[in-house]
Design a protein that fits this description.
seven-stranded mixed β-sheet; alpha/beta
Length: 371
């Protein structure tokens, strides 16, 4: 039997024809597919502005820069997350304030905002991990009390919804990623979302070297080249045509895992609140093991290594930022515990029921063998 990778993009055929159309048009940098992708994303998410950029990380930098935060201003980010949000905060000379997470949803705990906010705190970045959506009602309430801007990092939660609104559209700014493993892909790419016209104008200017649209080569601000190419956008437009199928297929995979594994007392799944309608990016399981963190992490790593010997690729949960030297993050107990206990299972549309059987049988065998 062949191996099962952790992720694999699914292409439907129209990607090739759209890319060839972009090439033949000679619009290979910016162009009509970029405009179309921005328009269609804004329409599907029921928002006003979608600004296409080179990847999800530059989307975060652009969102932070659009708010005109100053060096030393504080931004609250979760301690269990992919590092992009913390990286961009630090890269801009801002000061990260690290929040612990909810032990069930694994997302930023809103109560941490009150603990961490100071007179220098300017923003909070809830990161919607694995397709889940943070408790935006409580986050918005806390942000309002302390005068904070909310930037949603929805890189892993494109098309997930919270109270019937799409992730990335609650805060003043939101961001998406179109990386090869994400719900839809442009290879590399991202998007900034905002209903604020002033912020949208700032983002578009900063994306294009800080150059004014009405005065060629005149730069009012220092910007970057964060543009998405027309070729990449063509892939994204083709992917969007299949969005209904993509969303349902991802939901079916997550249901398949739950049907096969929910009876196991040795693991649990990420919790979704009733007001969240997720499009699960990756199905992740949490080892129900009360031993000390180092012991459990070692067991988790053995399970993953033995599944790899079965030809099944998995990924660990993100390292909590306190373990990573560049971040100077204090130890956060829930982030540390979840980080040590989580295994991300293969999640992509090409998985067959037989693949799911094989993955789940391997996981159950390894759980029993390492208990």
């Amino acid at each position: 039997m062949g191996g099962i990778p952790w992720a694999r993009p699914t292409l439907y055929g129209t990607e090739e024809s759209f890319v060839l159309d972009a090439l033949r048009s000679t619009w290979i940098s910016g162009g009509p597919y970029v405009d179309r992708l921005e328009r269609e994303i804004a329409e599907r998410l029921q928002g006003s502005n979608a600004i296409a950029v080179s990847n999800g990380t530059t989307a975060l930098e652009l969102a932070l820069r659009a708010l005109r935060l100053k060096p030393g201003d504080e931004v609250i980010v979760p301690g269990f997350t992919f590092v992009a949000a913390a990286n961009m905060v630090l890269a801009l000379g801002l000061t990260p304030r690290y929040a612990d997470i909810d032990p069930q949803t694994w997302l930023l705990n809103p109560a941490e905002i009150e603990r961490l906010a100071t007179p220098r705190t300017r923003a909070v970045v809830p990161v919607h991990l694995y397709g889940n959506v943070a408790d935006l009602d409580r986050i918005a309430d806390a942000a309002k009390r302390f005068g904070l801007e909310v930037i949603e990092d929805a890189a892993e939660a494109a098309f997930s919804r919270y109270r019937h609104r799409y992730a990335g559209t609650f805060g003043r700014l939101g961001t998406l990623s179109f990386h090869a493993t994400k719900t839809i892909t442009t290879g590399e790419g991202g998007m900034v979302l905002t209903d604020d016209e002033l912020l949208a104008t700032r983002c578009r200017t900063l994306r294009d070297h800080g150059m004014r649209k009405d005065r060629r080569y005149w730069h009012d601000v220092i910007g970057h080249n964060f543009r998405l190419t027309n070729i990449q956008a063509a892939i994204g437009c083709a992917q969007l045509q299949q969005l209904g199928h993509i969303v349902e297929a991802r939901r079916a995979i997550h249901r398949g895992y739950r049907e096969r594994l929910l009876q196991l007392s040795s693991i649990r799944f990420q919790a979704f609140h009733d007001n969240v309608d997720p499009v699960v990016w990756v199905t992740v399981v949490h080892l129900e093991d009360d031993r000390d963190t180092d012991t459990v992490r070692s067991r988790r790593d053995r399970i993953m290594a033995e599944m790899a010997s079965d030809g099944i690729e998995t990924r660990p949960g993100f390292y909590d930022l306190a373990l990573l030297p560049p971040y100077a993050c204090p130890e956060l107990p829930v982030s540390r515990a979840v980080s040590a206990r989580t295994i991300a299972l293969p999640t992509y549309i090409g998985l067959s029921p037989e693949d799911l059987d094989r993955i789940c049988e391997s996981l159950q065998t390894r759980l029993d063998a390492t208990h």
